[in-house]
Design brief:
Elements: H1 4-18, E1 25-26, E2 29-30, H2 31-50, H3 60-77, H4 83-107, H5 114-143, H6 147-155, E3 165-166, E4 169-170, H7 179-192, H8 196-208, H9 212-232, H10 241-260, H11 263-278, H12 285-295, H13 297-303, H14 306-311, H15 320-326, H16 340-367, H17 372-387, H18 393-407, H19 426-435
Antiparallel strand pairs: 1-2, 3-4
């Protein structure tokens, strides 16, 4: 029979596991959101009825980020934009409130060790994502079969969207229909694991995804990793004969797969595409559209009122100015601009932009004293956000986990099943609680 704390840990483990596995859904809503709601309700029940005497803990930086969202939605409701956009802003506020409640539930939990459970479950999910990506690629190359569409769309009816294609080839996306999800998974997984084989597999996934954001992300991850390991002088090769044999077999198998499936030629194409996009002289329609998001800002600001510039057009309403200016995606009821920078700037205004990125930069700076990977991970996600919209709800929840772990000196990048409690500085937790 589950104890109160064990049940809470199990819910959080399921939440961590399904965070990036977005294809598993109920009514096209990823099951992750349902576990999020269950965790919040259960935690609130514990706080109200089980742990009645407690002081409320919170981080003012994140509360200010939430307030900027609230004010942007209020501004949107009193503006003259169509009702469909106002509805999108209200729905966005609802989910932002749910994430806030999760944050409050977790930071006020009596069992902060549960953070480790979330991270461990996320790591297992990343391993599954890696396996699934290579299975997805193999099935398409060998049998022209899209297993995501076959299983999650045709058989289970969990999704209605199909996978993306580029140049007539399937874009490997893992457990989602678009590369934005796998681009972030690759970055977080790279820093979560110190295994070189896993790093090599992640490089392969970035190439197979055919996504410029994923390729850019993995290149920066590798460069940062090499620089940090060189500075720390930890690039050493130690292996037993058995490990050497097994490792050689694995590497040879990977090389054979790469050659047989033409992944090297795909890698060359993707690197050429990345260089072309970074040169700002691209014939790629997608690259030109993303560049247009930035070049259109002066015109948009010229046509915006002071309130829209300061507070934004409304949370998740960043696409509205482009409908007015360029008639882009005018057939949609609402959409979010495919760039974190522009999306944040237009959705929550200059104030929301400063608060949100100030919060992320604070995580980078404060996390450095625990592990350089905090700074590296957030930094790469921020760079990816210049090119695409990667700040999905589960990513923001992960960033909340990072923020709380820094507060209590928990290194989420150095957690294993065998060291469940050893990686947590108990004295630091006691000191923080006493200060509160």
């Amino acid at each position: 029979m589950f104890s109160v704390n064990t049940l809470q840990r199990q819910i959080l483990s399921l939440l961590g596991f399904f965070s990036s596995i977005m294809l598993v859904a109920i009514s096209e809503r990823p099951i992750y959101y349902y576990f999020l709601l269950i965790y919040i309700m259960y935690s609130c029940w514990l706080i109200v009825f089980k742990f009645r005497k407690m002081s409320l803990k919170y981080d003012k930086d994140f509360i200010l980020v939430y307030c900027s969202i609230v004010f942007s939605v209020i501004s949107c409701e009193f503006s003259k934009i169509p009702n469909t956009w106002k509805s999108a802003a209200t729905q966005g506020l609802v989910w932002a409130t749910i994430i806030l409640l999760f944050y409050m539930s977790l930071i006020n939990s009596k069992r902060l060790f549960n953070i480790s459970k979330y991270i461990l479950a996320m790591r297992y999910a990343f391993i599954l994502q890696i396996i699934w990506c290579y299975l997805q690629y193999t099935c398409y190359k060998c049998y022209s079969l899209d297993i995501n569409e076959l299983i999650f769309k045709d058989m289970l009816h969990m999704q209605t969207m199909s996978n993306s294609f580029r140049d007539g080839e399937l874009m490997v996306t893992g457990f989602w229909t678009h590369t934005q999800n796998i681009a972030v998974v690759i970055v977080i997984a790279y820093f979560m694991f110190d295994n070189r084989i896993i790093h090599l597999l992640l490089v392969g996934i970035a190439v197979m995804s055919k996504g410029t954001t994923a390729v850019l992300g993995i290149i920066i991850c590798v460069l940062i990793d090499l620089i940090m390991k060189k500075n720390q002088k930890v690039i050493k090769f130690r292996a037993t004969p058995k490990q050497l044999i097994v490792g050689s077999i694995v590497i040879i198998a990977i090389v054979i797969v790469i050659i047989q499936n033409g992944i090297l030629s795909v890698a060359k194409v993707e690197i050429d595409r990345l260089i072309e996009k970074l040169s700002f002289d691209s014939s790629d329609n997608s690259a030109n559209m993303h560049l247009r998001y930035y070049t259109s800002i002066p015109i948009i600001y010229h046509d915006s009122n002071l309130l829209q510039i300061i507070l934004g057009y409304g949370y998740r309403c960043s696409g509205y100015p482009f409908v007015k200016l360029l008639n882009q995606y005018s057939n949609l009821s609402s959409f979010v601009v495919e760039s974190d920078i522009i999306n944040t700037l237009l959705s929550t205004g200059i104030i929301g932009f400063i608060l949100f990125y100030g919060w992320l930069i604070a995580i980078m700076l404060k996390g450095k004293r625990i592990n350089w990977k905090y700074t590296a991970c957030i930094g790469v996600i921020l760079i990816e956000g210049i090119a695409y919209e990667v700040q999905m709800d589960w990513v923001i929840v992960f960033e909340i986990i990072m923020m709380i772990s820094i507060r209590y000196n928990i290194d989420i990048f150095d957690i294993s099943e065998n060291s469940y409690y050893q990686k947590i500085n108990i004295n630091k937790i006691k000191q923080v609680i006493e200060c509160i």
